Amino acid sequence: MTNASLADSFATAEAMLAHAADTDIRTAARRAAAVAAEYADIVDAEGRFPTEAVAALREQRLLGAAIPPKHGGMGATLADITATCRLLGEACASTAMIYAMHQSQLWCLLEHAPHDLWHAALLQRLATAQGLVASATSEETIGGNLRHSKCAIVSDGQGGFTLTKRVPTLSYGAHADAILISGRRAPDALPGDQVLVTVLREDCRLEAIGSWNTLGMRGTCSSGFAVQASGGIVQILPTEFADIAHETMLPVSHLLWSAVWLGIATDAVHRGQRYLRADARQRNGATPFGAARLADAIGLLRMLDSRIETLLDGRTHGTSTDTPTDTSSSASVIGRAARGRRGSASGYEGTLAMNDLKVRASLMALDVVGHVLRLCGMAAYRNDTPYSVGRHLRDLHAAPLMINNDRISASMATLALAHRAV
Q: Where is the sequence biased in composition, kind Low complexity (predicted)?
């Protein structure tokens, strides 16, 4: 296999970024990724927050890139953010996942926050200070079902509220500037009658209830916390949490997570390429034994890249139109979170597409790195060589567990039965 065919065989994050309209975003992403790559091994070994990489994201104004210019942001599209997630994934998985999770929460604000003074000031603050937004949607005792809550918003009757929640995994919570917290609308509300509220860091108290000593994604610092928060009723998003989750939070999360996993796998393939080229030089240019493995890995990368690009274009199988949608908003990019609201036929189709992306991407990325491990052998198995993929494998083993694939597959089976054209 020639170098030219290798170069043409899959689209890299640089190619994805080439479609971005704003050159400043491309340049900023490369600069931040360079810093993330420099500290990736240290972050992983020490299991610490990627302070240097997040500082670089702030310096390059990438944390608030999606915020509209009128509020001080860059107006980046979801395609821009997706490409940035992939590029960061090639550099440091923990940094990339923090960025992806932050952006999915920010997109919930951009799509569902009312046009009032408080939220306008919030967006301005997040853009100016390049604030980091975390998510507290998980909760002890609910079995991983984010669509049910035990905690509740308690109104003080004077325009304020309090909220207490035990969150088993609050990614980078100790480092966040704001947290989106889900809970029941009121103490007498049913478990599924939920709202989403934005809480500023200075208005909440975090008490650690667990540590984060994990196999991979060690720098996300997803410890458990007991959260005690307060604020004004105006901070509660008017859209029901069920609709926010369906229309924005889950589809955007699945898209950006998949881009991160694609980036991790892409870096592994780059290492495999370098290994085979070195091996070919020792063989006087003869095709190395593991070239077939590399071809398989590249094929999987191309499939995953194509699936992400298809969804970014707003095309899902069986939808009413194949016309690409405007890439300026999350809902339009991914088929208006999939060309329909809950309960509609097109909504079923879109939900299936986004859930399928998450499940397939998490498994395909692992398969890619597995191919690289086998083609490089001990050089990839060891942790002290430039071809090592141990960190890549450990980080990617988190992928099927983030909203467990088994839970998603069970949900997809139910949707498939309800949808006539599969």
A: 319-336
